[in-house]
Structures are given as C-alpha cells and as structure tokens.
Amino acid sequence: MIKRIFLVTLLGTFLVGCKVKQKVTYSKRKTETVRNIPKKTAPKTTVDDGGLYPMPEDTGRFIRMEFSSVQDYINTFSEVAQLEMKAYGIPASITLAQGLLESGFGKGELARKTNNHFGIKCHTGWQGDYDFHDDDAKGECFRKYNHPMYSYRDHSIFLTKRSRYAFLFDYKNTDYKKWAYGLRKAGYATDKRYPQKLISLIEQHGLANFDKAIAKAEYGKRKEVVVAEKRVVTTKTNAVHVVKAGDTLYSISRRYSVSVDDLKRWNYMYSDTISVGQKLTVETEKFN
User: Are 283 and 260 a contacting pair, CB within 8 Å?
Assistant: First the structure.
C-alpha cells in the first residue's frame, strides 16, 4: 500500500513538473521597411587630398567619445576642422558649427551610436557601415563611422563631390555667412533657420578665428590662373543679305553668327516674316 501511494505521488509530481515547463513564446519585433539599404563593407578612409592630411588607418573598432561641454568639443575638433579646410577649402568655422549643431556637441543620440556628427544619410553609393535613426521620417538610414574623424573627412568629401554644393567654393573661405546661407540654399538642411543657427554658433564661440590662420597661409584657396589679355581691335561693317527661297531669319542668323533679335532690330522688323528678294542689313565685325 505504501509503495502504491509513493508511486502515485511521484507520478503526480512528474505531471505537475511537466505542466510548469510550458513553451515560452516571444512577440516578433516590429521592423521598419527601409529602402536603398546599402551593402555593409569596410569604410573607405583612404582619400586623395593632395597629401595634406592623410587619415589614420581604420582599426575597425568603434570609438565612443565623451564631451563635457561645447568648449570641450571645439577643443577636440578645431585642429581637425582646420586640417580639413587646408585639404578641401571648407571654412573650419562652418565645419565646426555644423558638427556642433548636428551632433548636439557630441551628445546627440545619432552621434553617440554612429559617430555621425553631420547628420549625413546613407544616400545612393554609400558602402560603409550604417544604422537607423528617426529624423524627417521614421527609421532613416544614416552613415556610421568607427571614429568621429572619419565623419569629418566624409563631410568634406560629401560637400566637394556633389554638384549642388559646387557654387559654395566660389565664396571666400573666410565668408562664413555666405557659406551658411549657401548650405541652406543647396538643401543641406530643411530647417529654415539653419543659416542663423550656424552663424550664431560661429560668432558666440569665435570660430571664425580658426579660418583666419588657414586663409593667411593661403591653404584651401582656389588658385586663379591669370592670363595676359591680348588687345583685339575690331571694326564694324555692314553686309547686305538678299533673301533666297528657303531662307529664314534663324538660318540667316546662324550664317552670320548673329542673333535673330539683332537682325530684326537692324532692319526695323516687328515680325519674323521675310520674302524672297528682300534685302537685310547685317552688322559684321572685322578683327584687326
């Protein structure tokens, strides 16, 4: 009898134990569909900058930097911004101001998890590392770097290699105000007050001083080729063209390398209608 009670008790314990070990299920994490996700490869950090500022080799290890204040951030990256100005011509003040603003002086969520200090999105052609962050839309693709210095270099390349920013390099590299408004005009940021924010940071922290030293040494300045002008003397003469069948004002203007408007003005014409046998005065230039 005791044996039967023991066996029943043991069997009951076993069954209870089986019931406790139920299968645990986990809810699937909701994922965002992101288009144009680049292929992850090693970041390309070797760039031709004329040998002015070679980048150190990427070790592949993610380095997170901490900044205690705005001034600490400026002290850390002011020399980097100046070296980038030497190599690429972008004002150091603009680079620093953008870095401060876009990264929240290194304390922003995107900067902390990606070392992306300029808010540069993946864009077509990016083959480096990346991460997702909510910006203009949810779960957008942003570039990721193992060290903030690579972010500074990529910022220089980003501005110099895209045609929509080309006009910026016609400005003096000490004119930070034109650069600030030019960046907004080129579409770097959607914030309408983006230029004012950059200018405020530059003037509040004296960032323009970093431009002056580099500009004085004539680094980052687009060299202008001076070509001696040869004086050319021209004299104007009048030719007479007799309209033939098939002639049009356009064909006549092409023949004499003048404009249709000039032909009409020289001949007091108010329409494009001409007739066979009509004589048209054409002003031509003779080079001496």
Answer: no
Q: CATH for 70-216?
A: 1.10.530.10
Q: Give residue-wise pLDDT tens across range 71-129.
A: 999 999 999 999 999 989 999 999 999 999 999 999 999 999 999 999 999 987 788 99
Backbone angles phi, psi at 27, to 5 degrees: -70, 140
Would you call 180 exposed, middle or buried from its count of C-beta atoms within 10 A (0-12, 13-18, 19+)? buried
| Pair of tokens at residue 49 | 């900058």
Q: Which amino acid is at 212?
A: K
> Cβ(142)–Cβ(119) under 8 Å?
yes
Task: Tell me the C-alpha distance between 56 and 53, whole Å.
Answer: 9
- H or E element: which one contains 41? none
Cβ contacts of 132 within 8 Å, gap of 6 or more: 32, 34, 139, 140, 141, 142
Q: What is the DSSP string of 170-222?
A: GS-TT-HHHHHHHHHHHTS-S-TTHHHHHHHHHHHTTTHHHHHHHHHTTTT-P
The hierarchical CATH code for the domain 234-287 is: 3.10.350.10
**What are the extents of the domains in the chain?**
70-216, 234-287
What does pTM read for this prediction?
A: 0.61
